[in-house]
User: Fold ImmA/IrrE family metallo-endopeptidase from Biomaibacter acetigenes.
Amino acid sequence: MLVLDEPLFRALMDGTMPFHEVMNAFGIRVTIANLPPAVYGFTYVSKKGNYHLALNGNINYETQCKVFIHEIKHIINDIPKEGYIIGLDMQHQTFEIEADKVAESCSRYNAKVG
Assistant:
C-alpha cells in the first residue's frame, strides 16, 4: 500500500524518533478522549492548519492503535483531497475501507516484528 511508504508512516515505524516528536514534526495533535462507544476516533484540521486526532479512551489499546493508523491514513491521503470534515456514517465509502485495510496491514506487520 502506497500510504505505508509516506514519510510519516516511515517515521512512526522505524522508531528512530519518539512518538511525540514525530507527531509535532507533522503538525498532528493526538488526544485520548471520552467518546461515545460507537465513535472510535476522528480527525479534523484546525483553522491554524494543525491536524487533531482524537482516540476513544474507552476502547482497548490494540483497537486504539488500529484506529490511530486508520486516522493517519486520512491525514495523509483523504483530508487534503476532500476539503471538508468526513462524516461519522461513512464506513462503507471507499476511503474508509482503504483506511481500514492500511490499519489492518500495520497491525499484521507489528504482530510479526513485535
